[in-house]
């Protein structure tokens, strides 16, 4: 476990880290008075160069380590009772109260990264909590990553100027950010959010750091903007490599200091050489050149331009209307405060002092001169003695709206446009509306989405349809802005011509219903890219669209005859929705919250398919960790459906597989085999392909994602418990599997949706994407009113897991050893042997590291742990909380370490050795601090009774205590008075092992289970040796891939 920190220190990003370490003896007394200047001691939790290097290598950032030398710095950290306080409980226990803590200097070892490495590291940390397993991102590092995004925005918008900076007698050419208007506000907000740990470093222990956050951020932004601008310039200016037989091109000398400065702006460090006096003079000249920008950036007002419409009482010929751009001063801290520039030239008493204070007249002259270079029309206004605006004709107004306004806004000036104008043009525009006609929907009509439907285009202006005569009249006006029915309308000559051509050629034709559907949802282009005003549909396609868009209900279906179980009302709606889309050949994504029964809804659909006499099998692909779970759930809810598990080393191949699958309704396989056996699977005519945990194909370039998209199937279904609609980058891949081509190519998707939404936070693009994808994604949460009424207060489910090869090998060895030990054993000795073997087999099923007790690596070695990790990730995404029970304290420690390293959150752990005071503290913290403490591990004996833990709404039994009463008591820590949410109980079992067998034995006697099994597991010792051999035997289905 390592927490990665970073401070901006000596104009570099200094990276250091914390690791858990035993507390060292006190080094000296810390007084509350004046600190003595002494050599600071090493921080007990200091990671050091070796651990830092290893952490960066594990994060895939090893390139940045080349040639780096570790350095030491002094970190002023909270210290209490002679001991430095760790930044997180994951490093060391944090005292309940830190009131008496003082800042004290400690020595830390770190790495000063070169410029490009700084950018690479910070980019890798954007919007993450964990950089790599066991490598957590500190709050300070996360802050610098956020600040880098702002620096990148400044560089991308060209909010910088070249400059010359002096440091210790040397001058450096620098690209410096220019902050004004909203950028200044963003920087101020960012500085206010800066964690204190970002500026804890000093060169010595003489005094703590005192630089304000705003100044530190200013220096950081300056360095990052300089690097982001300089790096492409360096690459472009690098001389080409010498060809064989030719010398490398030499860098020419400089004719002037100015030329050297321009060259230094493209050099790696930008140092300048020359006479100090001449360099100082150049520095002064550059400052004078930049003065206008500096003046406007620091001003409390900004120049604002308001476009005013022609007066109603002054009619004019089309295109010759009189518009006016009014000049105003707009307060930077209150945009609603507007002062006409005319008043600034001759201030009133109420504003005179305010305007005189910031030199309003000088500011106006500078600002008007700057804006005139962007908008030459201002020259007309500047010809007057006291300019306060300039007139425009309609074409000029249109140019201002479409071009000049954006340029002025990007340069930091205020712009106010009429309400009828939006960022994308006039709100009332010429548009095309599609009209589709089809017969009414009737039973047994055999209609489908590949059917041709009658199609026509209708032209409109706003909500009003246009006739050909009206369109021709608009074209005759030849003005980009025309007033129609009292509103200004934007008219584009190309659009009008395209509209006229469309009208002349608009003989009714046909398109497929699928194309019409895509057009209606916004997934296709109109002719000549005319704005699309929607689709008016009649007949069955209109009914289908209404159902897809939630404006009309689809039929709710009864449970299939061969389905054993009762579907809750919301599950009936979900299963009916899946069937509705399946009947139309449309892919569906069922994204219900964990525990709402995606499995049973899917099985109901498959059962209905079989009942409808669809003989082809369904292929279900899922993670290895849930293959057994699907097999068990199918046996429980659809026992009449033959199921084949295509998994493990004994699976069929080639023609044998093709022949075998014909006998089955469902074939279960794993993502690992999807691309490995793709050539076999693609030759089979599947009725449907279903992807469980469909986030496994979120990266469209992976082999398994490509294989999934290439499988032939009559319908496709994706299941996921994660909110896919929130992950724009993942959505294209999943939708491309479900409905190929619906979101366009990946390149077009990035251009139309990913970049506008992720980079620009464009709400309109997000709404368009939701309209396109919403009909195919169904996500219900446990908190939804329509769902919560259908849920039981406590929902218990079994989670079946496979063993890994290592687990299977250890399991077989323990069983073999037990067989020898049981020979000749009787009485108490026999009972002891049996209980010992049961305990060993449970440990093997949990994790090899628990059984071997060798402190070996944890990931990738346990089927149970893999599944628990997947489920915890899912519940954390929706801010749920969980109790995790195990009867082994050793396993609790393994779980705690693994979950903390994987998710970067503190995980509480209560076991038999926990003192009462600490036990009460743990319970109190969990109940009080919901958002920061989502997971609580408890040993079954220590935490199974007497505790109130209603903060959790999930209970995991990682290993089983084969007594229902004991398990129910543990579950009741969360399911009790005070619980306000429904509780999901997950009981983990390993397939093909004694865990599955014992569970079956208990289920068969459930009505009297508590009396049969007694108070513990002693009842198992009463079994005969033959029964024990059968109980412990390792069956084929235990082993995963």
TrEMBL record:
Record carries keyword Nucleotide-binding: yes
InterPro entries for the chain: DUF3670, Helicase_ATP-bd, Helicase_C-like, P-loop_NTPase, SNF2-like_sf, SNF2/RAD54-like_C, SNF2_N
Family annotation (SMART domains): DEXDc, HELICc
Molecular function terms from GO: ATP binding; helicase activity; hydrolase activity
Domain called Helicase C-terminal: residue spans: 870-1024
Keyword Hydrolase appears in the UniProt entry: yes
Domain of life: Bacteria
Keywords, ordered alphabetically: ATP-binding, Helicase, Hydrolase, Nucleotide-binding
Helicase ATP-binding domain boundaries: 579-741
Name used for this protein in its record: DEAD/DEAH box helicase
Originating species: Desulfobacca acetoxidans
């Amino acid at each position: 476990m390592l927490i990665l920190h970073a401070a901006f220190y000596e104009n570099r990003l200094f990276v250091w880290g914390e690791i858990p370490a035993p507390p060292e003896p006190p080094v000296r007394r810390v007084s509350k008075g004046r600190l003595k200047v002494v050599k600071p001691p090493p921080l007990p939790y200091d990671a050091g160069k070796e651990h830092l290097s290893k952490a960066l290598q594990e994060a895939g950032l090893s390139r940045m380590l080349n040639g780096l030398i570790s350095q030491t710095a002094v970190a002023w950290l909270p210290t209490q009772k002679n001991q430095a306080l760790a930044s997180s409980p994951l490093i060391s226990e944090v005292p309940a109260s830190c009131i008496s803590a003082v800042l004290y200097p400690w020595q830390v070892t770190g790495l000063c990264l070169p410029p490009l490495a700084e950018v690479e590291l910070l980019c890798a940390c954007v919007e993450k909590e964990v950089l790599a397993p066991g490598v957590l991102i500190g709050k300070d590092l996360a802050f610098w990553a956020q600040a880098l995004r702002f620096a990148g925005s400044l560089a991308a918008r060209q909010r910088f100027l070249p400059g010359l900076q002096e440091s210790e007698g040397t001058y450096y050419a620098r690209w410096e950010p220019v902050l004004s208007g909203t950028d200044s506000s963003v920087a101020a907000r960012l500085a206010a959010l800066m964690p204190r740990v970002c500026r804890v470093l000093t060169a010595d222990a003489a005094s703590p750091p005192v630089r304000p956050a705003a100044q530190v951020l200013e220096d950081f932004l300056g360095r990052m903007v300089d690097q982001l601008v300089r790096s492409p310039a360096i690459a472009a200016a690098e001389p080409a490599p010498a060809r064989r037989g030719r010398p490398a091109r030499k860098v020419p000398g400089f004719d002037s200091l100015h030329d050297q400065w321009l060259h230094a702006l493209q050099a790696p460090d930008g140092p300048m050489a020359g006479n100090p006096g001449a360099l100082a003079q150049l520095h002064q000249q550059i400052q004078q050149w930049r003065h206008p920008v500096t003046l406007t950036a620091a001003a409390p007002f900004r120049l604002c331009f308001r476009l005013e419409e022609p007066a109603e009482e002054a009619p004019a010929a089309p295109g010759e209307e009189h518009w006016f751009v009014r000049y105003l001063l707009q307060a930077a801290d209150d945009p609603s405060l507007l002062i006409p520039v005319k008043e600034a030239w001759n201030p009133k008493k109420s504003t005179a002092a305010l305007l005189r204070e910031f030199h309003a007249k000088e500011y106006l002259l500078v600002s008007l001169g700057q804006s005139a270079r962007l908008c030459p029309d201002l020259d007309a206004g500047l010809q007057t003695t006291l300019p306060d605006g300039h007139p425009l004709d309609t074409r000029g107004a249109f140019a201002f709206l479409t071009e000049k306004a954006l340029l002025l806004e990007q340069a930091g000036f205020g712009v106010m446009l009429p309400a009828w104008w939006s960022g994308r043009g006039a709100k009332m525009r010429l548009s095309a509306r599609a009209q589709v006609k089809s017969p009414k929907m009737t039973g047994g009509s055999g209609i489908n989405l590949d059917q041709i439907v009658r199609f026509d285009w209708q032209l409109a202006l706003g909500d009003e349809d246009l006739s050909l005569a009206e369109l021709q009249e608009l074209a005759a006006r030849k003005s980009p802005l025309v007033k129609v029915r009292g509103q200004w309308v934007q008219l584009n000559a190309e659009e009008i011509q395209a509209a006229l051509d469309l009208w002349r050629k608009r003989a009714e034709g046909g398109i497929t219903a699928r194309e019409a559907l895509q057009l209606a949802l916004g997934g296709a282009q109109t002719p000549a890219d005319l704005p699309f005003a929607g689709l008016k549909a009649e007949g069955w396609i209109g009914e289908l669209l209404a159902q897809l868009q939630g404006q009309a209900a689809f039929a709710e279906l009864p449970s299939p005859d061969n389905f054993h179980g009762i579907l809750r009302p919301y599950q009936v709606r979900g299963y009916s929705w899946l069937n509705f889309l399946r009947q139309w050949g449309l892919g569906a994504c069922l994204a219900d919250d964990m525990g709402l029964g995606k499995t049973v809804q899917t099985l109901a659909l498959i059962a209905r398919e079989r009942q409808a006499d669809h003989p082809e099998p369904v292929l279900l692909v899922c993670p290895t960790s849930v293959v057994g779970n699907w097999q068990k759930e199918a046996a429980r809810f659809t026992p009449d459906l033959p199921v084949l598990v295509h998994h493990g080393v004994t699976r069929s191949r080639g023609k044998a597989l093709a022949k075998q699958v014909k006998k089955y309704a469902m074939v279960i396989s794993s993502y690992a085999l999807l691309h490995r056996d793709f050539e076999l699977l693609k030759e089979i005519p599947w009725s449907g392909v279903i992807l469980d945990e469909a986030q496994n194909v979120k990266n469209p370039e992976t082999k398994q994602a490509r294989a999934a998209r290439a499988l032939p199937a009559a319908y496709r279904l994706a299941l996921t418990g994660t909110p896919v609609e929130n992950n724009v980058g993942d959505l294209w891949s999943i939708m491309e599997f479900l409905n190929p081509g619906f979101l366009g190519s990946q390149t077009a998707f990035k251009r139309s949706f990913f970049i506008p939404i992720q980079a620009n936070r464009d709400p309109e693009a997000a709404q368009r994407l939701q309209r396109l994808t919403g009909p195919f994604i169904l996500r219900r949460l446990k908190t939804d009113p329509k769902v919560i009424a259908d849920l039981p207060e406590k929902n218990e489910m079994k989670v079946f897991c496979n063993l890994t090869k290592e687990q299977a090998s250890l399991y077989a060895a323990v069983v073999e050893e037990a067989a020898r030990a049981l020979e000749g054993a009787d009485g108490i000795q026999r009972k002891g042997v049996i209980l010992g073997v049961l305990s060993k087999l449970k440990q093997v099923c949990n994790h090899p590291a628990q059984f071997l007790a060798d402190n070996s690596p944890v990931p990738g070695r346990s089927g149970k742990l893999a599944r628990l990790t997947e489920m915890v990730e899912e519940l954390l995404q929706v801010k749920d909380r969980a109790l995790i029970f195990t009867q082994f304290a050793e396993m609790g420690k393994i779980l705690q370490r693994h979950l903390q390293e994987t998710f970067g959150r503190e995980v509480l752990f209560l076991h038999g050795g926990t003192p009462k005071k600490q036990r009460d503290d743990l319970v109190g913290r969990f109940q009080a601090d919901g958002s920061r403490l989502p997971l609580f591990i408890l040993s079954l004996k220590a935490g199974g009774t007497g505790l109130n833990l209603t903060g959790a709404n999930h209970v995991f039994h990682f290993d089983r205590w084969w007594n229902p009463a004991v398990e129910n008591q543990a579950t009741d820590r969360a399911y009790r008075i005070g619980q306000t949410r429904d509780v999901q109980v997950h009981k983990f079992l390993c397939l093909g092992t004694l865990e599955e067998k014992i569970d079956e034995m208990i289920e068969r006697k459930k009505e009297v289970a508590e009396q049969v099994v007694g108070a513990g597991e002693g009842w198992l010792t009463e079994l005969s040796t033959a029964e024990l051999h059968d109980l412990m035997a390792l069956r084929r289905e235990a082993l995963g891939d």
